[in-house]
Amino acid sequence: MLNQIKIVLCFTSHPGNIGAAARAMKTMGLSQLVLVSPKDFPSEEAMVRSSGALDILDNAKVVKTVEEAVEDCRLVIGTSSRNRTLPWPLIEPREMAQIIHEKPQSRPVAILFGRESVGLLNEELQLCNYHVNIPANPEYMSLNLASAVQIISYELRLKELMADSTQQQEIELKESELNATSEQVDGLYKHLEETMISTEFYDPDNPKLLSSRVRRLFAKSQLNQGEVNILRGFLSSIDKYIKRKTNV
Description:
This protein has 248 residues and is of the alpha/beta class. A seven-stranded parallel beta sheet has the order 3-2-1-6-4-7-5. Helix 1 links the parallel strand 1 and strand 2. Helix content is 46%, strand content 12%. The chain is elongated, with a radius of gyration of 20 Å. It contains ten helices and seven strands.
């Protein structure tokens, strides 16, 4: 399970936090680190703060956007400590580990950590299936980035250790039954948006909360690849029908 989980640090300002996060990951057996547009990396400070977890840093993948970081993932979880305008499925770290453990069809998994100062932005959180909240002291919720990575990583390792790995067998699923990747769901969303514009159901100049609500619907549904194909096939049939009517 652990080797199918990505820790994604988004727009990190301080290289020391990257090194400390790599150390936290290695102590718990995680190895996949993805950095979205870090301000300073590679960095000597990151190497020092990693305390020997240099392999994590050496193998870290650096990308430009959050979308690129999660495009091949079937489950995306964003860390969040704030209430948002649009409610989203909110879980705690232990529940998160249980969900990942019970749903092998949802892997690979990305767990997103935001900026040190403001965390993840709303548009980044909308890419997630769940938001995970670390239940810190409400009177002092200032949790260091590396500490948050350590807590999340610990819960994942604890769940891995609790599982009887010698007897547990994960069922091989047909490709159509695998959860759709973030990239596939995003493709469905864009296709739906284009069709809604064509049918005048959606006005991009006056979107209100429709766009966010549709993304939340897809995130909550956790569509599999077969379901995405069905929906896109249905949308394609609508597109063809509109073209036929237009040409009449």
